[in-house]
Every structure is written in C-alpha cells, then in structure tokens.
Design a protein that fits this description.
About 50% of the residues lie in helices and about 0% in strands. It is an all-alpha fold. The chain has one domain. It is elongated.
C-alpha cells in the first residue's frame, strides 16, 4: 500500500488515514463528540421594559407614517403645481392672442372705416373747424346740501373776515 503524503504516486487509496490499520502503525483517535453547551435563556423582560419597547415601536411607526404622508402630499402638490402652470401657459397664450386682436381692431384705419360705414361720420376739413377763446378760466363749483358742518362755517367766517380786512 502507498504511503500518504508520498508525492510519487498521485493515485491514492480510498481508505482514510488514522483508522485502525496496522500497516500505518497508528491507531485512530476517536474524538468524543462534544455536546453543545446550552445557552442560558435570557431573563424575561419586565412590564416597564415591554411598555417602553411598545411605545418606541408606536413612535417609529407613526414617524414612518408621517414621512410617507409627507411624501404623498408633496407629490400631490407638485402635480397640482404642474397643472396650474399648464393652465397659466394656456391663459397667457390666450391673453397674447386677445391683445393682438384688440390691437388689430383699434388700428386707426379700422376705426375710421367703422366710423364712416357704420356711424355715418366723416372727417372734418379745415373749413369746418372753428377755434374759440375763453376769457375767464373755467370754474366748477360743487354744491352740497344745506347742512354744513362747524369747520366749514368757521372757515367761511374766517374767509369773509380776511376779505373784509383786505378791502
């Protein structure tokens, strides 16, 4: 039989080393199977510890829920913003088209044409224009009711007194 760890022959026999084989001159050492040591059980948690853990779990779940709700709300607001921006663009385009339509309608040639055709108006020639001169300045008086307050009467009395003293 071949010796183990002899590198001269690569074909090894299938018998295991260290078995009770008198040829090797050794006897196998049978190791006793070690029994796994029992892990001591953890002491039971007290009611206070269980309550503290329950409160921590509830807080963690509520924080995760509020974060999820916040993300959903942000997403909703972004989509609402996108819709409003789209609506704003449409309204701005409509405003531009209306402004150009107003500018087109207010064109002087169109206004003159409307006045001539629809209203029957004609342009004045120089012989129809007459200038007048106003000698006195235009004054507008606002007449209120018969009731006057005390400050108005006092002011009027001061005006009359100062006018009397000037003459």
């Amino acid at each position: 039989m071949t010796k183990y760890n002899d590198h001269s022959n690569l074909a090894h026999e299938f018998e295991l080393p260290y078995l009770d084989n008198p040829e090797h001159g050794r006897t196998a050492v049978h190791e006793e199977k070690k029994k796994p040591k029992a892990i001591p059980a953890a002491p039971a948690m007290s009611i206070g510890a269980k309550l503290a853990w329950a409160i921590l779990i509830i807080i963690a779940i509520s924080l995760m829920g509020s974060l999820i709700y916040g993300k959903v709300e942000i997403s909703r607001l972004y989509s609402e913003r996108a819709g409003l921006e789209k609506q704003l663009d449409q309204l701005q385009n409509e405003n531009v088209s209306m402004q150009s339509e107003i500018a087109e309608r207010m064109n002087m040639t169109k206004v003159e044409e409307y006045a001539r055709n629809e209203l029957g108006l004609q342009k004045l020639d120089k012989s129809q224009i007459e200038y007048i001169e106003i000698e006195t300045p235009s004054v507008a008086e606002v007449k209120g009711g018969d009731k006057e307050d005390a400050l108005t009467r006092f002011k009027r009395w001061i005006d009359h007194a100062s006018e009397y003293l000037r003459h």
